[in-house]
Amino acid sequence: MRRLVVTGVDGSCESMAAADWAAQESLRRDRPLRVVRAFEWLPRQEAVLADRDTLTRQAQDDLREVGEALRGRYPSLCVTTELLRGPKVQTLLDATGGAELLVLGSRGLGGFAGFLIGSVGLATLARTQCPVVLVRTVESTAVERTPELEVPDPVTSGLPQVVLGIDVRRSCDELIRFAFETAATRRAPLHAVHVRDLPPMNAFEPRPEGDAVPGPWAEATRLLTATLRPWRDKFPDVPVTEEVATGKPVRSLLNSASGAGLLVVGRRARRARLGARIGPVTHAVLHRTRCPVAIVPHS
Protein backbone atom coordinates (compact mmCIF):
# COMPACT_ATOMS: atom_id res chain seq x y z
CA MET A 1 0.00 0.00 0.00
CA ARG A 2 1.36 3.38 -1.03
CA ARG A 3 1.98 5.86 1.76
CA LEU A 4 -0.07 9.06 1.70
CA VAL A 5 0.35 12.74 2.30
CA VAL A 6 -2.49 13.87 4.57
CA THR A 7 -3.79 17.39 5.06
CA GLY A 8 -6.47 18.53 7.48
CA VAL A 9 -8.93 21.22 6.42
CA ASP A 10 -11.61 23.11 8.30
CA GLY A 11 -13.01 25.58 5.77
CA SER A 12 -10.53 28.33 6.67
CA CYS A 13 -8.10 30.18 4.40
CA GLU A 14 -5.27 28.70 6.44
CA SER A 15 -6.27 25.13 5.71
CA MET A 16 -6.81 25.93 2.01
CA ALA A 17 -3.24 27.20 1.74
CA ALA A 18 -2.01 24.09 3.56
CA ALA A 19 -3.97 21.86 1.17
CA ASP A 20 -2.35 23.50 -1.85
CA TRP A 21 1.12 23.12 -0.31
CA ALA A 22 0.34 19.47 0.45
CA ALA A 23 -0.79 18.91 -3.14
CA GLN A 24 2.49 20.19 -4.53
CA GLU A 25 4.48 18.10 -2.05
CA SER A 26 2.44 15.02 -2.97
CA LEU A 27 3.40 15.47 -6.61
CA ARG A 28 7.08 15.85 -5.72
CA ARG A 29 6.98 12.69 -3.63
CA ASP A 30 4.73 10.81 -6.09
CA ARG A 31 2.19 10.14 -3.34
CA PRO A 32 -1.62 10.31 -3.27
CA LEU A 33 -3.12 13.15 -1.24
CA ARG A 34 -5.80 12.52 1.36
CA VAL A 35 -7.78 15.58 2.43
CA VAL A 36 -9.65 15.07 5.69
CA ARG A 37 -11.94 17.13 7.84
CA ALA A 38 -12.54 16.20 11.46
CA PHE A 39 -16.14 16.88 12.47
CA GLU A 40 -17.08 16.81 16.12
CA TRP A 41 -20.59 17.78 17.17
CA LEU A 42 -20.54 19.90 20.33
CA PRO A 43 -24.18 20.80 21.07
CA ARG A 44 -23.50 23.42 23.72
CA GLN A 45 -21.15 25.36 21.48
CA GLU A 46 -22.57 24.79 18.01
CA ALA A 47 -26.33 24.49 18.43
CA VAL A 48 -26.59 28.28 18.56
CA LEU A 49 -25.10 28.44 15.04
CA ALA A 50 -26.91 25.61 13.28
CA ASP A 51 -28.16 22.09 13.83
CA ARG A 52 -25.92 19.06 13.39
CA ASP A 53 -27.23 18.13 9.92
CA THR A 54 -26.65 21.64 8.60
CA LEU A 55 -23.10 21.78 9.95
CA THR A 56 -22.38 18.32 8.52
CA ARG A 57 -23.54 19.43 5.07
CA GLN A 58 -21.39 22.55 5.32
CA ALA A 59 -18.36 20.46 6.21
CA GLN A 60 -19.05 18.11 3.28
CA ASP A 61 -19.44 21.08 0.92
CA ASP A 62 -16.12 22.54 2.12
CA LEU A 63 -14.38 19.24 1.50
CA ARG A 64 -15.86 18.93 -1.99
CA GLU A 65 -14.76 22.46 -2.89
CA VAL A 66 -11.20 21.81 -1.74
CA GLY A 67 -11.05 18.54 -3.67
CA GLU A 68 -12.40 20.13 -6.86
CA ALA A 69 -9.99 23.06 -6.59
CA LEU A 70 -6.97 20.79 -6.16
CA ARG A 71 -7.98 18.43 -8.97
CA GLY A 72 -8.47 21.40 -11.28
CA ARG A 73 -5.11 22.91 -10.42
CA TYR A 74 -3.15 19.61 -10.37
CA PRO A 75 -4.93 17.22 -12.77
CA SER A 76 -2.27 14.50 -12.45
CA LEU A 77 -2.63 14.32 -8.66
CA CYS A 78 -4.66 11.56 -7.00
CA VAL A 79 -6.86 13.35 -4.43
CA THR A 80 -9.36 11.79 -2.04
CA THR A 81 -11.52 13.62 0.48
CA GLU A 82 -13.11 12.24 3.63
CA LEU A 83 -15.23 13.60 6.46
CA LEU A 84 -14.19 11.96 9.73
CA ARG A 85 -16.44 12.09 12.80
CA GLY A 86 -15.08 12.19 16.30
CA PRO A 87 -12.84 14.24 18.63
CA LYS A 88 -10.69 16.39 16.37
CA VAL A 89 -7.25 15.62 17.79
CA GLN A 90 -7.71 11.86 17.96
CA THR A 91 -9.40 11.82 14.55
CA LEU A 92 -6.45 13.60 12.95
CA LEU A 93 -4.02 11.28 14.70
CA ASP A 94 -5.90 8.23 13.45
CA ALA A 95 -5.94 9.68 9.92
CA THR A 96 -2.13 9.87 9.90
CA GLY A 97 -1.62 6.19 10.68
CA GLY A 98 0.97 5.05 8.15
CA ALA A 99 1.07 8.49 6.51
CA GLU A 100 4.32 9.91 5.17
CA LEU A 101 3.47 13.49 6.06
CA LEU A 102 0.75 15.59 7.69
CA VAL A 103 0.24 19.19 6.53
CA LEU A 104 -1.65 21.76 8.61
CA GLY A 105 -2.33 25.45 8.13
CA SER A 106 -1.77 28.33 10.51
CA ARG A 107 -2.59 32.02 10.48
CA GLY A 108 0.31 34.44 10.63
CA LEU A 109 0.68 36.52 13.77
CA GLY A 110 -0.55 39.82 12.39
CA GLY A 111 2.28 41.79 10.79
CA PHE A 112 4.89 39.68 12.56
CA ALA A 113 6.56 36.46 11.55
CA GLY A 114 5.44 33.19 13.03
CA PHE A 115 2.52 30.85 13.39
CA LEU A 116 -0.62 31.01 15.47
CA ILE A 117 -1.38 27.44 16.47
CA GLY A 118 -4.68 26.46 18.03
CA SER A 119 -5.11 23.83 20.70
CA VAL A 120 -6.09 21.14 18.18
CA GLY A 121 -3.05 21.79 15.99
CA LEU A 122 -0.66 21.94 18.93
CA ALA A 123 -1.98 18.72 20.49
CA THR A 124 -1.83 16.93 17.14
CA LEU A 125 1.68 18.21 16.49
CA ALA A 126 2.91 16.96 19.86
CA ARG A 127 1.47 13.46 19.50
CA THR A 128 1.64 12.43 15.86
CA GLN A 129 4.18 9.80 14.80
CA CYS A 130 4.78 11.22 11.32
CA PRO A 131 6.42 14.50 10.30
CA VAL A 132 4.12 17.53 10.38
CA VAL A 133 4.49 20.61 8.17
CA LEU A 134 2.92 23.88 9.24
CA VAL A 135 2.11 26.30 6.43
CA ARG A 136 1.63 29.94 7.26
CA THR A 137 -0.80 32.26 5.46
CA VAL A 138 -1.92 35.80 6.13
CA GLU A 139 -4.38 36.87 3.47
CA SER A 140 -5.10 34.77 0.38
CA THR A 141 -4.77 31.09 -0.37
CA ALA A 142 -2.87 29.44 -3.17
CA VAL A 143 -5.90 27.52 -4.49
CA GLU A 144 -7.81 30.78 -4.94
CA ARG A 145 -5.37 32.08 -7.57
CA THR A 146 -6.99 32.82 -10.92
CA PRO A 147 -6.96 29.79 -13.23
CA GLU A 148 -5.58 31.87 -16.13
CA LEU A 149 -2.24 32.21 -14.35
CA GLU A 150 0.42 29.75 -15.39
CA VAL A 151 0.84 27.03 -12.78
CA PRO A 152 4.51 26.15 -12.23
CA ASP A 153 5.41 22.49 -12.27
CA PRO A 154 5.91 21.65 -8.56
CA VAL A 155 8.12 18.70 -9.47
CA THR A 156 10.63 20.34 -11.81
CA SER A 157 10.59 23.96 -10.62
CA GLY A 158 13.69 25.02 -8.70
CA LEU A 159 12.98 25.74 -5.05
CA PRO A 160 14.77 27.61 -2.26
CA GLN A 161 17.04 25.70 0.07
CA VAL A 162 15.90 23.37 2.84
CA VAL A 163 17.39 24.32 6.22
CA LEU A 164 17.99 21.59 8.79
CA GLY A 165 18.37 22.46 12.45
CA ILE A 166 20.34 19.63 14.04
CA ASP A 167 21.85 18.81 17.41
CA VAL A 168 24.62 16.39 16.50
CA ARG A 169 25.19 15.47 20.14
CA ARG A 170 22.03 13.34 20.02
CA SER A 171 20.81 10.60 17.72
CA CYS A 172 18.44 12.01 15.10
CA ASP A 173 18.57 9.81 12.00
CA GLU A 174 14.85 10.28 11.30
CA LEU A 175 15.32 14.05 11.23
CA ILE A 176 18.33 13.93 8.91
CA ARG A 177 16.68 11.41 6.59
CA PHE A 178 13.59 13.59 6.21
CA ALA A 179 15.66 16.69 5.43
CA PHE A 180 17.75 14.93 2.76
CA GLU A 181 14.74 13.22 1.18
CA THR A 182 12.82 16.49 1.06
CA ALA A 183 15.73 18.37 -0.48
CA ALA A 184 16.13 15.59 -3.05
CA THR A 185 12.46 15.61 -4.08
CA ARG A 186 12.56 19.42 -4.35
CA ARG A 187 15.87 19.42 -6.23
CA ALA A 188 16.93 22.01 -3.69
CA PRO A 189 20.15 22.52 -1.73
CA LEU A 190 20.32 21.55 1.94
CA HIS A 191 21.85 23.79 4.59
CA ALA A 192 22.55 22.05 7.92
CA VAL A 193 22.89 24.19 11.04
CA HIS A 194 24.27 23.02 14.38
CA VAL A 195 24.13 25.54 17.23
CA ARG A 196 26.95 24.96 19.67
CA ASP A 197 27.26 26.38 23.18
CA LEU A 198 30.89 27.38 23.42
CA PRO A 199 32.76 28.27 26.61
CA PRO A 200 32.32 31.90 27.72
CA MET A 201 35.80 32.92 26.49
CA ASN A 202 34.81 31.81 22.97
CA ALA A 203 31.22 32.95 22.93
CA PHE A 204 31.87 36.30 21.24
CA GLU A 205 34.79 35.34 19.04
CA PRO A 206 34.18 35.36 15.27
CA ARG A 207 34.12 32.03 13.54
CA PRO A 208 37.64 31.05 12.47
CA GLU A 209 38.37 30.29 8.83
CA GLY A 210 39.04 26.63 8.05
CA ASP A 211 41.00 24.71 10.68
CA ALA A 212 43.44 27.53 11.39
CA VAL A 213 42.19 27.91 14.96
CA PRO A 214 41.77 24.66 16.93
CA GLY A 215 39.34 24.21 19.81
CA PRO A 216 35.55 24.12 20.14
CA TRP A 217 34.89 25.49 16.65
CA ALA A 218 36.96 22.80 14.96
CA GLU A 219 35.50 20.07 17.17
CA ALA A 220 31.91 21.09 16.42
CA THR A 221 32.63 21.36 12.70
CA ARG A 222 34.23 17.90 12.59
CA LEU A 223 31.28 16.42 14.47
CA LEU A 224 28.74 17.96 12.10
CA THR A 225 30.67 16.82 9.04
CA ALA A 226 31.00 13.28 10.38
CA THR A 227 27.28 13.10 11.18
CA LEU A 228 26.25 14.18 7.69
CA ARG A 229 28.84 12.19 5.72
CA PRO A 230 26.79 8.94 5.45
CA TRP A 231 23.77 10.92 4.28
CA ARG A 232 25.80 12.80 1.68
CA ASP A 233 26.82 9.40 0.32
CA LYS A 234 23.18 8.23 0.18
CA PHE A 235 22.03 11.45 -1.53
CA PRO A 236 24.97 12.46 -3.76
CA ASP A 237 22.81 14.77 -5.89
CA VAL A 238 21.82 17.01 -2.96
CA PRO A 239 24.16 20.02 -2.58
CA VAL A 240 24.95 20.38 1.14
CA THR A 241 26.42 23.25 3.11
CA GLU A 242 27.21 23.16 6.81
CA GLU A 243 27.17 25.83 9.50
CA VAL A 244 28.21 25.80 13.13
CA ALA A 245 26.58 28.74 14.89
CA THR A 246 26.81 30.06 18.42
CA GLY A 247 24.42 31.98 20.59
CA LYS A 248 20.71 31.46 21.07
CA PRO A 249 19.52 28.41 19.08
CA VAL A 250 16.28 30.05 18.00
CA ARG A 251 17.95 33.20 16.69
CA SER A 252 20.60 31.20 14.86
CA LEU A 253 18.02 28.97 13.16
CA LEU A 254 15.88 31.94 12.16
CA ASN A 255 18.86 33.76 10.66
CA SER A 256 19.85 30.67 8.67
CA ALA A 257 16.28 30.04 7.50
CA SER A 258 15.75 33.54 6.13
CA GLY A 259 14.50 33.06 2.58
CA ALA A 260 14.39 29.25 2.91
CA GLY A 261 11.72 27.12 1.31
CA LEU A 262 11.40 24.90 4.38
CA LEU A 263 12.88 24.75 7.88
CA VAL A 264 13.23 21.24 9.34
CA VAL A 265 13.46 20.80 13.12
CA GLY A 266 13.02 17.84 15.44
CA ARG A 267 10.78 16.76 18.28
CA ARG A 268 11.60 14.03 20.76
CA ALA A 269 9.02 11.25 20.28
CA ARG A 270 8.46 10.64 23.94
CA ARG A 271 5.94 11.64 26.58
CA ALA A 272 6.90 13.81 29.53
CA ARG A 273 5.20 13.71 32.91
CA LEU A 274 2.93 16.56 31.83
CA GLY A 275 2.06 14.97 28.49
CA ALA A 276 3.47 15.19 24.96
CA ARG A 277 5.42 18.36 24.16
CA ILE A 278 7.22 19.80 21.14
CA GLY A 279 10.19 21.29 23.00
CA PRO A 280 11.04 24.92 23.81
CA VAL A 281 13.28 25.59 20.80
CA THR A 282 10.80 24.17 18.28
CA HIS A 283 7.94 26.02 19.97
CA ALA A 284 9.84 29.32 19.82
CA VAL A 285 10.84 28.79 16.19
CA LEU A 286 7.19 28.26 15.22
CA HIS A 287 6.25 31.61 16.72
CA ARG A 288 8.95 33.55 14.88
CA THR A 289 9.63 32.05 11.46
CA ARG A 290 8.02 33.02 8.17
CA CYS A 291 8.72 29.94 6.03
CA PRO A 292 6.93 26.58 6.30
CA VAL A 293 8.26 24.43 9.15
CA ALA A 294 8.55 20.63 9.28
CA ILE A 295 8.57 19.07 12.74
CA VAL A 296 9.97 15.55 12.66
CA PRO A 297 9.55 13.16 15.61
CA HIS A 298 12.68 11.16 16.37
CA SER A 299 14.04 8.89 19.06
Automatic annotation (TrEMBL):
Transmembrane segments: none annotated. SUPFAM superfamilies: Adenine nucleotide alpha hydrolases-like. Pfam families: Usp. It comes from the Bacteria. Residues 1-136, 162-297 form the UspA domain. Belongs to the universal stress protein A family. This is Universal stress protein. It comes from Streptomyces lycii.
